[in-house]
Design brief:
Blueprint (H helix, E strand, L loop, with lengths): L3 H9 L3 H22 L17 H28 L18 H31 L2 H4 L2 H28 L6 H4 L3 H31 L5 H16 L2 H5 L2 H18 L6 H17 L7 H24 L4 H15 L7 H11 L8 H16 L5
């Protein structure tokens, strides 16, 4: 089912034959994105990172690889069928295009579709080459990471195919036209938020280990083991990259061994927790994903508009100002994990009834949020 914006675009085209050809591509693109997203890699993972390579691994993953290629090829065939290279007349001369705005836009859209078709085809070739690389197919985690990376890239390229071809007919956003885009954004926002909380938990545990008395060291190891187990049950863990899961599992195994070691030297636990802290901090790199950068810019701009409006209402309608600040704070929650100072504000805001603040307190809250948003590096 296409988005309302895509339906509106298709209905606006006077060339109905072209519109139906474009619809066929968009329908196929929607199905491809759905199928490329509908894969739970958890069932192919293990609780160990030291599995010996064997033929069963390849046999287990071969259907996933086959389905990935088939899903992309179905879309490629639809694009080839409906948007082959520009037709030529009997004498070899190019068929002249109708000199209308819509015709020129249709020509641009067709060329964009063909360009992305070529990139997708190259990606299929690269997938085949990767699957013939012994260093990839002989290691479970490397193979999972490569499949995950390629499927993500295919989804991104198909999204670009839809977005750029639709953009040829007028201004649209990815959220309006790209199938599955909103779900991908929400998954990325969720991963960022839960990873930010994990980073806080690990940092706090590190501080406790550094100050722990000898009799409390093993207890801290057991607590950290419980905390990592809890993270492994979150939805965010499911969406982590395979190589990041591999590192989490490695460190979790080491913590588990220390949790049952008696006596346990603080230096041994401290070494592992410091490594874990460094690794979890590195996961903040999720902020560099284009899908989050685009999302964050939109949220940042929307919050700014609301806060300016609230500022203007403070002197004349404080209840309306409070509601507007509350809306801005609620919207900013999806930025949680981008900046530690903003995160502190957002955690406090969740527990605050903004409508009950006095005007001076509301002004202070508003100005604090404005300042924190101004300090974000997202432009």
């Amino acid at each position: 089912m296409l988005s309302p914006k895509l339906e509106e675009l298709l209905q606006s085209l006077s060339d109905r034959a072209f519109a139906e050809r474009l619809r066929a591509v968009y329908d196929s693109a929607s199905q491809a994105i759905l199928r490329l997203s509908d894969l739970d890699l958890l069932k192919y993972e293990t609780a160990s990172v030291e599995d010996s390579p064997d033929l069963s691994l390849w046999e287990e993953m071969a259907p996933v690889i086959r389905d990935t290629v088939m899903d992309v090829n179905v879309l490629l065939n639809v694009v080839r069928e409906h948007f082959a290279a520009r037709a030529v007349a009997a004498g070899g001369a190019e068929v002249p295009l109708v000199a209308t705005v819509e015709a020129r836009r249709a020509k641009d859209a067709s060329e964009l579709l063909q360009g992305w078709m070529q990139q997708l085809a190259q990606g299929v070739t690269q997938l085949g080459e990767a699957m013939r690389n012994p260093s990839v197919v002989s290691d479970r985690w490397t193979l999972l990471a490569e499949i995950q990376r390629l499927r993500e890239r295919f989804r991104e390229q198909i999204g670009n195919l839809v977005f750029e071809s639709a953009s040829a007919f007028g201004p649209v956003t990815r959220q309006q036209v790209v199938p599955g885009y909103e779900a991908e954004v929400q998954a990325a926002v969720m991963v960022r938020a839960i990873v930010a909380d994990l980073s806080r938990i690990v940092a706090a545990r590190l501080a406790r280990v550094r100050e722990a008395e000898p009799e409390d060291v093993q207890w801290n190891a057991q607590q950290l083991q419980t905390e990592l187990d809890a993270f492994g049950r979150t939805v965010a863990y499911r969406h982590l990259r395979a190589q990041d899961k591999r590192r989490i599992i490695e460190l979790r195994v080491r913590v588990g061994k220390l949790a049952i070691q008696e006596p346990l030297a603080r230096a041994d636990l401290l070494s592992v927790v410091e490594q874990l802290d460094t690794f979890v901090r590195s996961l903040s790199g999720v902020n560099q994903r284009q899908v989050l950068i685009t999302h964050d810019r939109e949220v940042w701009a929307g919050c700014g508009v609301r806060l300016e409006r609230a500022l203007g209402l403070l002197g004349t309608d404080s209840p309306a100002a409070a509601r507007t600040v509350a809306e801005a704070a609620a919207s900013a929650q999806s930025l949680y994990g981008r900046d530690p100072r903003l995160d502190t504000f957002l955690r406090k805001a969740r527990k605050t009834q903004l409508a009950q603040l006095s005007v001076p307190e509301l002004r202070s809250t508003l100005e604090t949020l404005q300042s924190l948003l101004a300090g974000l590096d997202i432009l």
